[in-house]
Structure formats: structure tokens, C-alpha cells
Amino acid sequence: xxxxxHLVLVKFKEEVVVEDVLKEMEKLVSEMDIVKSFVWxxxxxxxEMLRQGFTxxxxxxxxxxxxxxxxxxxxxxxxxxxxFSTVIEKAVLLDFPVVTVKSPA
Amino acid sequence: xxxxxHLVLVKFKEEVVVEDVLKEMEKLVSEMDIVKSFVWxxxxxxxEMLRQGFTxxxxxxxxxxxxxxxxxxxxxxxxxxxxFSTVIEKAVLLDFPVVTVKSPA
Lengths: 105, 105
Hints:
2 copies of one chain form a homodimer. Helices cover about 40% and strands about 35% of the residues of chain A.
């Protein structure tokens, strides 16, 4: 069965201290074994025209879709999401089974 | 040095045969050793409100930022991108050094 990814692109509100949000996000993920991997990044390269205001990408990987579903509905995640929605100006979410074309040797 | 990711979210134009575009993308990536890994996915889960019309995510990983820079300016990629821009309705690109919070055991 394919791995499943939860991808979130955001633009934070200007007054937000991003480091604080990241700490909460790291705490959430570290407490939940169901999250297999979690990486994120802040865009440093794309032209504004191409990134359209989005500044950060968050990418979680799960063993399977059921694990993502369990994570998404978990009280800790629901609580975090409610808070998170107040600190962002905009976001795009995509959730998808992973198709691997090339993986590291 | 951190790995570097090139993330592309798109909505394809309605008449486009996505499989054909994917084949070209796979060809491009398979010909360039500089691309360390490449995965993609089609959203099957997010609410339309959350995914905002975007349907596909493409995610390439490079050993380092310089490799991404070399990839981005490579004639094969430039040629592909020019074509690619004609088949999409909209896109967001983010390019970022990877911060790993949690990696698979």
C-alpha cells in the first residue's frame, strides 16, 4: 500500500512569531507515533510570482491513508488545527497517496 | 548541508491528458542524476475549500541547493517548463532547504 502525504502550504499573518508555531507543531508530531516523518521548509528561492505569497511548506508522511485519517481526527490535531487557522493568512492543503518515480539509491 | 526540495502544486487545464505530462516529467527526471528523488500525488482527500482547485503535487529532492540550481537552469528542464506552463491553469512553486523534524526510524 502506498505511503500517504499531508502537504500544507501557508502564508503566516505578519505579526505571527513563526518559531512559536513551529514549536507547537513539533510537539504535536513528536507525541504522535503515527506520523512517520515530518519535514518543512521556508521558501528562499522562488520568485514571488511563482510562490504567490506562500512562504512555508509542511510535509508529513504516513505509512498508509488510515494513519493519516486517524491523525487528522485525533483531538491533539483538531486542537492544533483550530489554533493554527488563526495564525495564517492563507493555506492550501493536499492529501495524497504517494507515487514514487525515483527514490534515493 | 541541508537537502533542498522543489515543490510544485498545480491545477491542470481540463482538456489535458495528465498521464502524457507525467510521462514527460518522468523522462526528464530519469535522465538527470542530479535529481535525488521524485514523488508526486493526486489529492484524494482534502476538501475543495482547502485544496483550492489544486489537484496534483510534485516533489523533487536534491542533495543540496546547488544541484537544484543546476537542474532549474538545465536546457532539458527549461524546455520542459516552457511546455508545462501551457498545460496548467495555475501553479504554486516553493523551493526550500529541508528542515527534518522527524525521519523514519
